[in-house]
Amino acid sequence: MAETHQISGANGVMETGEQRPTWLVVTVQFFVVPMLIVALCVGLVMVFRWMTFERRDVTSYLSALRASPSELGARGLLNYIEESKRWQGIFDMTQELNGRRAELLREDPALAKKLLIIFEEAGARGDWKVRQYLALVLGMVGDKAAVPALLDAAEPRAQNSQDGTHIAAMKALAMMEDERALPVLLRLARSNERAVRLTAAWALGSFPSAETDAVLRVALGDDDPFVRWNAALALARHGQPEAAPVLEQLVEADYLAKRAPLPTAEERGDYRVAAVTLLGNLKIAKQDALFDKLSREDADYRVRQAAIAVLKARKTKKP
Predict the structure, then answer these.
(1) How many angstroms separate the CA atoms of 318 and 258, rounded?
(2) Which of 77, 129, 134, 174 lies most in the core, judged by the most C-beta atoms within 10 Å?
(3) Where are the domains of the chain?
């Protein structure tokens, strides 16, 4: 049996009687350890690829959406993966509806009914985030059978206010343009809650009527700028010239940059592009000079393109 002796060297350092071969140390340090690290990284990549790309059909989307955190259980990494797959399912569903809604409905004619069941189940178990996103998905699907459930979800009760389900439901009702939503939206436009008022103002743009325009004109004087802006955008969609002063203000880059509570240039650009487009639809002749200036000098490329489109449309319609 080989013996290992420890002695004290001249410098006081403990040394072993038998030393590992140099080639073995080099092999471990420069080959084995790096290979283990690479294998670990490849394994993680494969796990996340499986997590995000596993689903390819409607049935698997619905299965991922129906799984709740309580059903998944506390299983560490596996629980995290399953929960992430569920959120990916919501994202994938919206992408699919944007790209091929008619095809999806042909593949599964009962898709809206199934989504509505999952929507109600999410509310029953308090899965508010899923319920919020599913409200928008139901709006994109457009099945009128979902209107009663969305009308109930649009009410700003405590359970609906969790994660903004009521806001999502109002947006979904606007997408569906069902007249049953109009009385609810008109009432919510007078809400004490700022987010409810501004969303209702935006949603009323889908319901042109004398009663709607009267409520939106009142909203033009709201203390909150977002409510005023969304009311003006909605009125402009109805072709009402009263929206012009607020839209002209929105178009000004300096106004939004200095006074508006919008944190990013992209968000400010979104409002400005919408304002330019809808202001152009009002066909106010004196604004041609404004659009010409925007098309040539504005720093935002999207705003310039919107102004060019307005000028082109106006020239095409002239006799």
Answers:
(1) 37
(2) 134
(3) 51-176, 239-319
